[in-house]
Amino acid sequence: MVAVFSLWPFVNTVILSLTDAQILRGGRFVGLDNYSRALEDPDFWLAAGNSVLYLAVVVPALVLLPLALAVLVRTEIPGIGFFRSAFYTPVIASAVVVGLIWQWVLRSDGLVNTVFLKLRLVSEPVPFLTDSTMLLVSAMIVTVWKGLGYYMVFYLAALGNVPASLYEAAALDGAGPVRCFFSITVPQVKPMMLLVGTLSAISALRVFTEIYILGGESGGPGGGARTLPFLIRQVGLGFSGETGYAAALSILLFLLTLVFSLLGRRLSKGDEE
Predict the structure, then answer these.
(1) Residue 107 neighbours by CB under 8 Å, 6+ apart
(2) First vs last C-alpha separation in the chain
(3) pLDDT digits (tens, 9 = 90+) for 234-255
(4) What is the SS3 assignment for 25?
């Protein structure tokens, strides 16, 4: 099963990346021409820059915010189960449904702009979906919002393994909640923070649905909000799709993802040592 559905598709992608294959015809061997073309393609650098920017913004948010949320929902108060379920609800919701909801919220005549205009915070609608930069930021917000509950569960599992005696000893020494958080909670869940950082980095580099739903098939005005997965789809789709070039872009995305995965592994190994 692994060989058929995992190893062979990967090997086949590497082979395709060395050809000029298209959707409706086989290709001939062209060596590293596709990779040279990618490195000279401004669309590739724009998409790669957007993907790295997406990672740089989303990963810190998904490492820190779910941890704070997990600490809050661990408090045993009446009705806390409802809030735990509510925070997790976006995780099980369809990405398409979530995207459509946020599209309604952020469009020019949507909820956010209507409130801003009524409160006279802005003189004209904010171009959340019609400006490339704002579109990218809006997609980041959707990604973070949808991932909060997912990674919150990771942290809840990690917090459950922190000995209560540590907090009791700190309380006897006069440490407050903030001091306990930074001196006990963070060091104890640091391995989980590294794992969440690695997983969220991989997900951020693979983001597609949010950009597609909010920005349409073009990836925003002039394609300015396209990420690498979005560009791969555009290049390889349709009757004139360039399968070989799209495969080369896929391999470059794989290498970029591998770099951040190895970095996370390295940090995790150093922390364990």
Answers:
(1) 113, 128, 129
(2) 36
(3) 998 877 789 999 999 999 999 9
(4) strand
